[in-house]
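seq as requested:
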Amino acid sequence: MNSLRAPRVRSVLDRLHAAADLDEDQPSPWPAGRDFTATPAQERADLMAGVYMPISARGGDLLYALIRAARPERVVEFGTSFGISTLYLAAAVADNGAGHVVTTELSDVKVAAARENLAEAGLQDSVTVLAGDALTTLADVPGPIGLLLLDGWKDLCLPVLRLLEDRLAPGALVVADDVSFPSMAPYLEYVRDPAAGYVSVEFPVGDGMEISCRA
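struct tokens:
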């Protein structure tokens, strides 16, 4: 069974990917000259509330395959946006017949849209969407976490990983998207250091995905 091929799921994914492609051709709403990382996370989320910032379709397929193979009981995502990546995660746990996705998003606009998209695809029962700052909303998520997807603000990927690290299951997979971005350098330095306890490999998907196994 592969829900990604089911008409109900496929139609939502196709619609969202098409909208995201059109979105890339639009001018960024980010004010010229403003320092991104110096701007508070909530203000960034509000300014970028209409921007998709999606995972690639091939990246989504990779996530789906990883979850089908690893069969994690708990999947955690940092950065829901409009729910494109979340749909791939939810389809995988639903097809496994076990597991649940916990995801978090700072923009109220995107939280509402993601919930609507998941419901339209019929996958809402496989996901809990938390609204707010990930460093707060994920603080009490119980372990063991079998797969962690980091696709929110890039400068916060390492802090979120460190927040959840003690709840990662042995052999857990940590997937970070857009690793070609310069702001991901501290994260990559950390997971690629053998002393951190990961086996880490970059995959040439989209803007780069780093897949790290908690060894």
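The chain has one domain: 3-214.
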